[in-house]
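dumping the sequnces here before i forget
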Amino acid sequence: MAVSTEELADSMYALVAEYAGKKKLKASDIVKEMIDKYGDEVDKNQGKEAIRLLMDSERCVYTYFGGTYIELPHKEGSAPE
Amino acid sequence: MSDSKSPILDELEKGPWPSFVTEIKKAAEKSPMAQGLLEQLELSYKEKKTHWKHGGIVGVKGYGGGIIGRYSDASDKFPDVAHFHTVRVNQPSGWFYTADALRELMGIWEKHGSCLTNFHGSTGDTVFLGTKTSELEAIFTELSEKGWDLGGSGSDVRTPSCCVGPARCEFACYDTLALTYDLTMSYQDELHRPFFPYKWKFKMAGCPNDCVASIARSDFSIIGTWKDDIRMDSEAVKEYAADADFNIQKFVVNKCPSKCMSWDGEKLEIDNRNCVKCMHCINVMPKALRVGKEKGAAILIGAKAPIVEGAQLASVIVPFIDMTPPYQELKDLIAAIWEFWDEHGVARERIGECIQRVGLGSFIEQIGLKPLPQMVLQPRDNPYIFYEEYLEEE
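..and the predicted 3d for all of it:
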């Protein structure tokens, strides 16, 4: 049975939460993890759609530290108090 | 002794040339942020260190690019520049603005930012310098309502840019403006939602003069060229020859890099098979020589400025490609390259670096291109590289 985009977004969120503070994940890392997990039930385009859901719902944010990563929202370290 | 608050910066106003300090001072009459910038900059010059910190999170909802976070580490002294984020706005193709469009942009920026701009950033964007996090969504909303959009930043497709193309230049071999618009609209997702190992820049140059320096500054360089012969107006050649200040042999023929031209004092001849399309003769005799009629573009890949690794110039991967909309052949090639980069690229590795690491042979094989002589920069000089596998296939 195919995985819905919402379910995929939930799985992605869980992955990002698991790695929070340990490793920064790129969008493509997350999609590759999902393809490893669900096999042919998901593809790259659905992965991109799921990331869009994560961003639009503000459960995750894009961050830039040299390259662009996907992380849980957190306070900007360099922002003034 | 001067009672100026910025004696070091004032030095940069001396001399006959334009001064960014003078311009920031003008903006400071209206904008406390610009005044704060002057004061912090003076301190930086005095202490010989920056007081900017990079911000990695700021942005607008849904987009992963377009805003570059900047904070002051001396916000107690300069509270007006505690936040000083940059906003990249997708520029019009060829940087053609109407006066109304510029007023529209400046109206938004005066309301929400420092009034300082950079026309244009090195990628090509219209750049707004200095705003607060709390203003970002308002800026984005107002820009969007008026038909503008943010540009790229981070590991995404950076804002595509092009030369003025056929709008103002008779050398253009394809419509750079149309292609830039098409690619910008086709790759909206890739522009706003970073998915790549690192940045990806498209630059469109209408002819080999490459006025946008795409060969040095873009990952994917599309340079207009032609297949057939250079068009020559013999009567106009005679007019150049009659000009006592113009020496065809010295200024044109002797400077041909492939020595494919000859001049006997009456007739100019071009061995077009050996022409490398450097544009020199056409540039210096524009009334007599023109690019051919069978026009298209060459695709080069892999240029970059030094960041993680050193600078690199682009290499030819497609010597000639048709540039008629909807550009399907071009888009298929881009899709194949992105697939390869997604598979093989590592974090912060540009496509040129990735190709260098994996090898050009492996790269062209995986994206489905055949090896061509034009891909070779110079004959091999290493006798320890062998090609048996190709010989066996034959």
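The longest strand of chain B covers residues 113-119.
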